[in-house]
Amino acid sequence: MRSAELTTRLEQAVRAQGMAPGPARRRRGVAAVTLVWLRPEPVVLRADAAGRLVLEGYLPFVVPGGRLHRVVKAFLAARRPDAVCISRDRALSIGLPGDDWPAVLATLLALAGDIRAMLDAEWPDYARGVFAPSLA
After folding, report:
1. Is there a domain that residue 136 lies in?
2. Is 21 among the domain residues?
3. Which domain holds residue 124?
4. What φ, ψ does residue 81 adopt, rounded to 5°?
5. Domain count for the chain
6. Which of 69, 57, 71, 66 is nearest to 25 (CA)?
7. Distance (Å, rounded) from C-alpha 121 to C-alpha 50?
8. Tens-of-pLDDT digits for all 136 residues of the chain?
9. Taking a C-beta distance cutoff of 8 angstroms, is the pair 74, 68 a contact?
10. 31, 6 contact by CB (below 8 A)
11. What angle do CA 83, 129, 109 make, to 5 degrees?
């Protein structure tokens, strides 16, 4: 399947969640769209080469191997053993495998929401100061 077709599938999966996809991003044949969700900055939703949907850079400024990285990794493993945590460019991406992208995206967004709730409860300085700073 070509990148344009994959992007269309991603946009359809986002719309199935009642959300409006942002601009499509295509680089080196990777299908991706932007979402504004739970954070003031857009998050990139992409389909990776392994067939996973990934919220790219969902958690900014997370040090690989650091305490927050380990907590998030354990949190995901306890809820979904097939979830992935990818550290790159001082940010943590989360992803899930699957072919039914609307269902996978619904699960991925639920996991991301659970992470947000955990951050609010256990890491409030990070949640309110880094992850989703107040716009006021």
Report:
1. no
2. yes
3. 3-131
4. -60, -20
5. 1
6. 57
7. 33
8. 566 677 777 777 777 777 776 766 666 667 787 877 766 777 888 887 777 899 988 999 999 999 999 999 999 999 999 999 999 888 999 999 988 888 888 899 899 989 999 999 999 998 888 887 764 3
9. no
10. yes
11. 30
